[in-house]
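Model it.
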Amino acid sequence: MFLENHSHLQQDIFGIESHLSESKRKKLHNSLEASFYKLIFCNIDEKLFAPLFSDTGSRPNAPVNVLVSSLIFYQKKGWTTEELFDRIDFDLRLRFALGLNNLDDTPFCPATFFNFQNRLLKYFTEKGINLLERVFDSLTQDQLKELKIKTDIQRMDSFQAMSNIRSYSRTQLLVEMLIRLYRVLDENDQQKYQEIFTPYLSQTSSKFIYSLSKSDIPHELEELAVIYHRLYHALKPLYSSIEVFKIFERVYNEHFCIVSDKITVKDSKKIGSSSLQSPDDIDATFRSKRDSSYHGQVVNITETANPENSLNLITDVAVAANNTDDSTILNDRIDILKAKTSDLNELHTDGAYGSNDNDQKMQEHTINHIQTAVRGRTPGVAIEIKETKPGQHHVSCPLQSTQSQNTRKRYKACFDMTICAQCPYAEECQTIKQKERRVFYFDEEMIKLQHRIHAIEQLPIERQKIRPNIEATVKEYTKAYNHKGKLKVRGIFKTILFAFTMSIGINFGRIYRYILENPHLFPGYSHINSILKAIGHAIGHYHKCLELFMPNFQRTVLKHTTCQVLAKVAF
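Modeled.
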């Protein structure tokens, strides 16, 4: 049964602060964790998570705002689960951030923490709704409005989120899946197929591969093809619903095929980047970029970038398979970005985000797409196209210019052959040489490409170098990677949890630092601190008085009355 958590609003006069001196209470109220409580914890809309729980009378849920806040600290700090629970139990500042007013309560156990994530995954799978994204959007919209941050200019970039998996060679992956398949077979089937599995069970898949020479691998693959084919057809009727067999079936279909009624090994070049990279992460894909190989997902982030902003916040986050082109991700996010920030009219990206489809969408939403570079081969001779009026264009090269002419499906520009003959770049020119002239053909897609190439040149100098600053934001995410440059999790949904909790944490960190640097701009924030400090003093005073003059049962009654009064005053 879903219940909202309001217990943190009832200050406990025998709680954490009653045990602290005035100087320590002051330090606690000025801490990052106290700011987190006020800026994030108290603004998490718990009602968003009501569908995760039963709507009939049953045991109440663990407090959602505590669970979500714990996830944010868990990811932002890079803690293990054990470290998180140690901190919850013994770190006074973290307990304060989570709205825990005394030293005794543990708000949930590890099983509840993992079950909550599983509920989020199930809801995401069934409904296609990421509840943490909704929390992020809700918090961010309020923050943008409260801090009066301009969202008309934004910048975008992506980074590789490497899954925490082992890199398997093709042969090792096939052997590993055989070993895992054997483990899920019942005893009768294990005995029935013992002869097939025995060569692979005496050692790990990595040690098995080390024992093979390079010349042995083609023969081994052929043997594995026969084994996979036999096991697949023999076991499918019995194990088709088992998760491990489903992965085995996927590997079988990705690596082998029937040719002339014979099972054969597929050419490695025909195995796509979406093929299984590891049985521990069925969502991970493969991508080669700048001579490096990546297995996992890609995270795309967008943040405000108006030079007039004193503070910029992340406005949009998306996670996709890492073999998804940046231009495809942008195409999926343009409508969403515009809906979130309706005044968006200028978006800065690198060259990978450009496409004809994106140009069309940008035009529909009146967004000026600014690219720091344009993907593709640079032509030997630059030819510029500028629209003078609908259907007519001024076309120029380094030595001459002309007006375009319409053809049946596109446009053409005709250049004077005598001038072209004197051009030192004639051999590299992309125009077509005809009898009496050189002709350059172009279409609407090339016109849009030209617009993207020159769009940055039309901006004031201070707006031409906006995009590279987002790389500092990327570094804030990658700080959470392990020593191998990978995430500490596997799977696309765990990557989604990482991306959105980190984004909430990064935005909060920026706001917190901005408030510290500019206290004069936030009198309301200082007022809240003053109230909380006063409550701390009151709690300490009441605690001493009660200890001296009242018996236990009277202290208990007054404790609850005082908590209610102080909570109303504070909130």
